[in-house]
Design a protein that fits this description.
globular, mainly alpha, 78% helix
């Protein structure tokens, strides 16, 4: 009798999600994602308080901000494929525990080095959580229509987390010390651990052959170097600077070696044959392009709102909220739209809507126009989320279920790389269009003009030091140059988005909804049942 009970319990755990509790599983996975998304942005508003309390140097300050996304992006493939081998639920629960411990260490950090180490541990925990949520979602929703709805809710939660992070951080800083932005993770993790252990199903991919540890480390090192180099480019560092060029070259060499190694192995860490499928490779490319546009535009829009329109950080966050609400709406209706129009038209229309929003925003000038910004941000949020949702759904559905952890990791890595490349590329375009306008301002010394050409914020500082008519002239010229640079950057973004719309023609025309597979016990479970009988 006990053998029968044991086999039945195993079968129930393997087929969790076939019943109504799959929606409860989705709630648990969304809470996991919300924490990771919050932690990516919640520290931004706390940086002044951290700087005042811990007195970090310039390099330490940079690493406090960048360590989390760097480590997280680097380890996504490692932990995504490890979950396929040892169990996705197991990796997710370990990520919960590590994330909670690292949050406590970060909140109580007394110096910058401890905070950097804690942020690195948070990145490790985030890399364990993010691909596991998508791969478990792929398992518990075998029906593609339901899975599309689940992914829509999942992506809407991601949008909420990214937007709520700065607002929540600002609220906590008004009432508590800066460490409170990390402490909010601990009670949620204390709840998520036992609930996840109880409700989440365990799943694994194929376990033929040994896990490629060397390949996993090569992928991690290569991604770390590549993302680090891209972030330095986005920060305005020259491409030929050793600290920028060396990580890029080493990262690219390791990734090329990783690809060659995977092609030679009988049991590769990541099955690169997935990229031979047009729907999979196109979806990954669309994710990169969409994030490239979103992050670069959000960064420049925030600078425009604060430095040109002179809005406070809180007012800036509130102005950007319509973008988030539109993204949430697109995620929630995405399943219906995908079923009706298919991946090809949905991704293409999403890119076209985003391009239309970007072109609309070229009407922004030196004066505030709330109606223009509202309509542009709503259209931008809805279009981008429509694209990202359909691309993620197509990518995940195209990948074999046994490779879902690796596929999810590839998608999340594309997301992170697109964000980094967007800041670097659009930031470079912005700087190239902005600086020439300050080269010859009447009455302003050449040295002051060169310094003002670095950024609008620096131009304001130089103008304040000059004072009088010269300072006013420099300030006016800097604002006009920034708006001109913004228009050029928006036009470049629109071109990239239209390229994405053309790329979408390689996606399937219709959404193929295969019948969900019937849960069948493994031979081991069947044998246990026969023996017990």
């Amino acid at each position: 009798m006990s053998g029968t009970t044991t086999a039945a319990a195993r079968l129930r755990r393997r087929t969790a999600g076939a019943g109504a509790n799959r929606w409860v599983v989705l709630v648990v996975l969304c809470v996991s994602l919300l924490l990771v998304a919050l932690d990516a942005t919640v520290l931004h508003v706390a940086m002044p308080a951290v700087t005042e309390d811990l007195k970090p140097g310039a390099i330490e300050l940079l690493w406090i901000v960048d360590t989390y996304p760097l480590v997280c992006a680097s380890l996504l493939i490692l932990f995504g494929t490890l979950g396929d081998r040892i169990g996705r639920r197991r990796v997710l629960l370990l990520g919960y525990g590590l994330f909670g411990v690292a949050s406590g260490v970060a909140a109580l950090a007394q110096d910058a080095q401890v905070l950097i180490a804690a942020r690195a541990l948070l990145g490790v925990g985030g890399a364990m959580i993010m691909p596991a949520t998508l791969s478990i979602l792929r398992q518990v929703f075998p029906d593609r229509r339901e899975r599309a709805l689940a992914i829509g809710i999942w992506s809407a939660v991601a949008a909420v987390g990214a937007a709520v992070g700065p607002l929540l951080g600002g609220f906590l800083l008004e009432h508590y010390w800066w460490g409170s932005v990390f402490l909010i993770n601990i009670p949620l993790m204390l709840v998520s651990l036992p609930v996840g252990r109880l409700l989440l199903p365990e799943s694994r991919g194929e376990r033929d052959g040994p896990w490629d540890v060397v390949g996993a480390l090569m992928a991690a090192g290569g991604l770390f170097g590549l993302v680090l180099g891209v972030k330095r480019l986005g920060g305005g560092e020259p491409p030929i600077a050793p600290a920028t060029l060396l990580p890029l070259l080493v990262g690219a060499a390791l990734l090329v070696g990783f690809v060659r190694r995977q092609r030679r192995r009988a049991h590769p860490l990541v099955d690169l044959r997935m990229f031979a499928r047009p729907a999979f490779s196109t979806s990954v490319g669309c994710i990169v392009l969409a994030m490239l546009a979103l992050v670069g535009l959000e960064l420049i829009a925030a600078q425009y709102l604060q430095l040109v329109l002179r809005l406070s950080p809180l007012q800036t966050g509130l102005r950007l909220l319509p973008l988030t609400f539109a993204a949430m709406a697109a995620g929630l209706v995405g399943s219906h739209l995908l079923h009706r129009f298919g991946p090809r038209r949905m991704v293409a229309v999403g890119f076209c809507l985003t391009a239309a929003a970007v072109l609309l925003l070229t009407a922004m000038g030196g004066e505030d126009d709330p109606a223009l910004l509202l309509s542009g941000f709503v259209l931008l949020g809805f279009g981008l989320e429509t694209t990202l949702f359909a691309a993620y759904e197509s990518m995940l559905s195209e990948a074999p279920q046994e490779q879902s952890g690796g596929a999810a990791a590839i998608g999340e890595t594309s997301y992170q790389l697109g964000a980094g490349i967007g800041i670097a590329l659009l930031g470079s375009v912005m700087n190239a269009a902005y600086a020439p306008g300050l080269s010859s301002v009447p009455g302003v010394p050449a040295g002051a003009s060169r310094a003002a050409g670095h950024s609008l914020g620096e131009a304001y500082e130089v103008a304040d030091r000059l004072g009088g008519a010269r300072g006013a002239a420099l300030r006016h010229a800097a604002r006009d140059s920034f708006v001109h640079g913004l228009h050029v950057t928006l036009l470049v973004s629109a071109g990239l988005l239209l390229m994405g719309a053309l790329m979408a023609v390689r996606l399937p025309r219709v959404m193929h909804c295969e019948a969900p597979p019937t849960a069948v016990p493994t031979s081991r479970e069947a044998a246990d049942t026969r023996v017990s009988a």
